[in-house]
Amino acid sequence: MDLFSHLNWYSGVTTEEGEPIKSIPTGKLIVISDTLESEGSFLIHYFLQSIFKSTTTPNANTTNNTNNTWGGSCLLGLNQSLYNYFNIGRKLGYNLTNENAKGNFTFINGLSTPYQWIIEQRVQQLEEQGLDEEPPLDSISQGFAPFPITHLNSNIVNISSTVSSTSTSNNNELKNILQKIYNEFINDHKKRIQKNPSNKTLFIIDGLNILSSYNSGNPSGSFMDIVYFLQYCHNYIKENSNTCSMLILFHPDCDEDSKFFNLLQYEADLTINITNLKSGYSKDIDGQLNFIQKDEKTNTFVKVNPIHYQALDNSIRFFSMGSRIQ
Fold first, then answer.
1. What is the pTM of this model?
2. How many Cα atoms sit within 13 Å of 97 on the Cβ side?
3. For 270-293, what is each residue's pLDDT tens digit?
4. For position 72, which CATH number holds?
């Protein structure tokens, strides 16, 4: 069973023969919610695997499949380092370095620069010794960087002219970060469609909780800034509904206030809730995927039939509830 054909069937996205298309839905804001018992990052890797498989399929450029081809992904890593995504990708059969070289993958490092304290400490030592510079640190000391990546902790631009460049307000800093994320996403998409107008881009935010907890002193202010940011992204996705989508991982059980998650679900076109089995442990089933899909015509929400999943070392199995794994 295929996850995307399951979703597209209920959305009415089918081929001329009436078969659901086995491709990531386009023009959608998709939210993944999980729990401590059923962690949801495996779906991000599943989406990436699907994208990179489509770019290397021999028949990817044929007439029947052109509209289903995903050109690549722009991933904002707030939860894990690039090293983690790279290693998991190798297990799943793709190489992020190669995909970046082909223009299929862009990584935005939302974490602090790895081992930055080493660099700062060494600079201080050099100053004490009266030295201006030294040979660059090795790759281990500098952190894992197999290709050029974007960092959010430097060169942050102001979201408007009313924000002072010297302001230290957490609220302004968050706005600046969100503005930069938006710009990076849009620029990455534009570059990809300039290369091939039919290519599609998946924007991924791994760990929206990091942004939502940015300003602990005024959480409601942070929530609304992020909601506005998502609305801007959602509008852009709708305007370019044939060539992009957005995938967001959020941990609702990490937030005491459920208001933000409710707003997030309301904004989303599709919410995938990952839960463990109500019946208890099973060696053949890891958990259940529940779907809440927005009906664009009536602007109401409908539940799609849930499915079970099993996470293996190099793949994910999906199957209808009550069926056997083939």
1. 0.83
2. 7
3. 999 999 887 777 778 889 999 999
4. 3.40.50.300
